[in-house]
Design brief:
Strand content: under 5%
Length: 83
């Protein structure tokens, strides 16, 4: 028996979008779908396109990555090895 609480957790399926794409794109999508889920690859790409990461956030992430790389070099004794 389904309770009101259970009903609130039921999600409707996503709408279907059917498009024709050039063969090169289809091959790229298939190659990116390491788990075989081409739909998720397309969803991720469309989400990134329509909801891009703000430029200032990208800059912050780059600065944080540089700090992490510097700390790793320090921990390795600065021997110049690539991480």
């Amino acid at each position: 028996m389904m309770t009101d609480n259970d009903a609130s957790r039921v999600t409707m399926p996503s709408p279907l979008l059917s498009v024709r794409v050039p063969q090169e794109l289809m091959e790229a999508i298939a190659a990116a779908a390491t788990d075989g889920n081409k739909s998720q690859v397309v969803i991720d790409i469309l989400t990134a396109h329509f909801n891009p990461v703000p430029a200032d956030e990208v800059g912050q992430l780059r600065r944080r990555l540089e700090l992490v790389e510097q700390r790793l070099q320090t921990m390795e004794g600065g021997n110049g090895r690539d991480v």
